[in-house]
Amino acid sequence: TIWYLYRDNLLPEKTRFVGYARTKQSISEVREKSKKYMKVRPGEEEKFEKFWQLNDYLAGSYDKRIDYELLNQQITKFEKGPIANRIFYLAVPPTVFEDVTVNIRNACVSIKGFTRVIIEKPFGRDDETSAKLSNHLAGLFKEEQLYRIDHYLGKEMVQNLMTIRFANQIFSPSWNRENIASVLISFKEPFGTEGRGGYFDSFGIVR
């Protein structure tokens, strides 16, 4: 997705991409793992190479401040201009949301621009844990710094349902909360949990 945004010139010109995770690997290894997902059309090869030159990667833990200080140093190396904004996209297990956000707040906020934190679902297992997470985040960031997203809402299947519902007046009298008791969507994928069993024990599908 980031490649598509870059390819279509939808990102600021001086954007850099820094990956951070526990896995010890090089950016060339990241590129190799990403290859099967990247669609490069004829004539885009040069731009694709430039895209990878803008990528960097650093391995570190979720809960040690020293690792985030090293991440901050890595990011700072690319911030040459008078303004430098930072966006952190948290595609991490929900059990480490608190550790990660605390360390970002303490060691990685931008000193010459804005800082934004994008949190990918889930936002807790229930009302209580959701409120706990929201209160935790409120103690670290202003609301305008936070973005909560559910990437499933971007699935073509879900979007098509919305289009059918609102683009056809014939459904308006019946496709509403007064007439529908529940909606069940079966979404089959050709792979297993692939190491995410611990996640599904507490969140999402299995729960």
TrEMBL record:
One of its GO terms (biological process) is glucose metabolic process. The keyword Oxidoreductase applies. It is an enzyme of class 1 (oxidoreductase). InterPro entries: G6P_DH, G6P_DH_AS, G6P_DH_C, G6P_DH_NAD-bd, NAD(P)-bd_dom_sf. Pfam families: G6PD_C (PF02781), G6PD_N (PF00479). Residues 2-160 form the Glucose-6-phosphate dehydrogenase NAD-binding domain. Pathway: Carbohydrate degradation; pentose phosphate pathway; D-ribulose 5-phosphate from D-glucose 6-phosphate (oxidative stage): step 1/3. One of its GO terms (molecular function) is NADP binding. Keywords: Carbohydrate metabolism, Glucose metabolism, NADP, Oxidoreductase. Residues 162-207 form the Glucose-6-phosphate dehydrogenase C-terminal domain. GO terms for cellular component: cytosol. It catalyses: D-glucose 6-phosphate + NADP(+) = 6-phospho-D-glucono-1,5-lactone + NADPH + H(+). It is found in: Cytoplasm, Cytosol. Its EC number is 1.1.1.49. Belongs to the glucose-6-phosphate dehydrogenase family. Cytosolic glucose-6-phosphate dehydrogenase that catalyzes the first and rate-limiting step of the oxidative branch within the pentose phosphate pathway/shunt, an alternative route to glycolysis for the dissimilation of carbohydrates and a major source of reducing power and metabolic intermediates for fatty acid and nucleic acid biosynthetic processes. This is Glucose-6-phosphate 1-dehydrogenase.
